[in-house]
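Listing S7. Sequence submitted for prediction.
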Amino acid sequence: MTTYLDHAATTPVRPDVAAAYAEELTRLGNPSSLHAPGRDARRRLEEAREQLAAAVGAEPAEVLFTSGGTEADNLAVKGGYWARRTADRTRVAVSAVEHPAVLEAATWLAAHDGAALDLLPVTGAGVLDVAALDVHLDEHGPATALVSVMWANNETGVLQPLDQVVALVHAAGIPVHSDAVQALGHAPVHFARSGLDALSLSGHKLGAPVGTGALVARRDLALSPVEHGGGQERGVRSGTLAVAGARALALAVSSAVAEQEAETARLRRLRDRLLSAVLSTVPGVRLSGPDLDQAGADAWLPGIAHLTVDGADADSLLFGLDVAGVAASSGSACQAGVQEASHVLLAMGRDEEQARSALRFSLGRTTTEADVDAAAAALPTVVANARKAHATRSARARRSAVGLHDAATDLRSVS
């Protein structure tokens, strides 16, 4: 049996959600049709919208159903930028540690649409540098169309100072979007109280099927369509609405929010049990993020433990854990399956080698003490083997470099 500790990538569908989803798949009706089956489908869709809105502290009219967090992020970043862009307002600012769905959308605007992209720096702990944001707003506020700062980082689990961000950015007259995909269900997320203008969420991190999500956006936030069609969702998001997905998403989110307080305490105990075992038995392993003693447990999401391992690389660590029956990751699962240096760790000031040594354990609703104990027991051997492999590769690379240098010297002496 595999010990699954990659819930931040995706988590099992909740049984009651799967049942509701399957039931809806047997029903007929396009919610945009005017006949009886269509009207019935529309009623179920709007009930799901109301349920989801209540769970996240929003009004039903503020909920736009999407195919997931990536689409929601693109609609917020691109659609928000296009709606506010003028000849004098061509900048978009995002934190340097954003999920690829935000970072790549903003990068695309810079590469293909003439936007000026500003990457807001973070501290060595991975927390947004609020002072740097303030300076940016002083210098470029009137030219900035949108600011996007995630609620919690998907790799490190570090929570961002959104209260301060919203206050500063709104004072400059700029809308704020936040990717709350990892935070929802694991931290108190309330759209109205947050002051945000838009918030993205995804279903498959909370027990809904893949392909479900939403953008929660204030009614007065202007958004331009990213795709064009029937304009089913407020005229900015087109496509036949998936009633089954909407029902599944709403049920999963409301259940996760209802269980959040108890689940936070349980996951925090399990995470701390894992960290205590790993940090006390494996030398050269460090926790990413703020100092534990100074920041406290509330600085992180309760179910994420992000580590760097000196003298090893992520590929070897993940392969060794997989062989040992433990599923983990090095960070975002949205990079086409390619392990690269973590842009999050690079933004935190780590060097290239450290940024390739990341290991993320993410716990979820089905995680048990036996799961974290199995991971802790497997890790010492896995790290030792990964370090041997890394040392061998490094020595081979050094020998190759020396050989190339000697050959070049010989050629110069002959010439």
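Caption to Listing S7: primary sequence and predicted structure tokens for the chain studied. Residues 75 and 173 are 20 Å apart (CA to CA). The first strand starts at residue 3 and ends at 4.
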